[in-house]
Every structure is written in structure tokens, then in C-alpha cells.
Amino acid sequence: MIREYHESRLVYGWQMWHPLVKAEGAMCPDGIRRTAYPSSDGIADTFYSIPARVRVTHNHARYTISGYVTTATVEGMSTPTDDDPLTVYFHPYTYGTNGWILASTDALAQYVRKYDEYARGRADMFARWPEDSRYLDPYRQTADEAYPNVDKARTELLRRTAENE
Q: Which domain holds residue 10?
């Protein structure tokens, strides 16, 4: 079964209650429409979203980005009108392995800012009690473990700001 939307469509099994097969023309945050495939069984995890993934080419390399598919109007509302039809959107998980590729500039800036705060907080804690640093929370992650893509995110953020200037 196929449900048509504005410049996109959701393809299900042969009945509406069957799992999602793919979402064609899902609008990504970078403004490009891509085909999203369900990342699990294709059944919605909430009433409004279905976990999904898209494939993206970035700097001559292919990446798979995880996130979720949902529907909203072109203007961002939940109720469609004649002037504002429903369309399919893909929202990436910015904390995922490749989420920095499709993340908005604001999300990248927030990710880098959180890393800096986390790293500063860990450094301050160990500076106050250097002799106890190995006993203070041995299972807590370092800043680099908690934010593994911060270098890529920082580089992408600098590239985007340089393009806008």
C-alpha cells in the first residue's frame, strides 16, 4: 500500500497496518529529498515516528545515517490544509556515528559546546583532586568517549561558517 504526500510517499506492505517498507522523498535537514529505509522492523516506535536510516554521499564517501521518519506539513504544522499539505521528513540522530553530516549548524554548535563543557568539567574535577582521579568514578566516560565525533563536528561547523561569510 502506498500513501501519497507532497513530493513524497510512504510504501507499506500490502495493508496499511503492515510495516513500512520505505519512505520515498523524505526531506532531510540539508534540504535534499532522499529515500529512507526502516532501521528495524518498520513498525512505529511511537504514534508519530518510525526509526529509519538514509544513505548520504559526503566528500566522496558513502555514509549511513540513523534517525526517524515522521510526517508534518510543509510549513511545519501537524494539521494539513489545502495550502499546506503533509510531507515526509527524516530527522537524524545528531549523537549517532554519522549524525554530524546531516545535522543543522545549530545542532553542531550545541554538540561542540556540550563537549567543551564536559571536557572542562572533567579537567576541573581532576585538577581539584588529582590524587583521587583514578577513584572518582572509574566507569565515567572521558569527554572523547562521550562525544566521539567532536573533531568531525567542529571541522564541519567551521566549514559551514566559512561558507556563510
A: 2-92
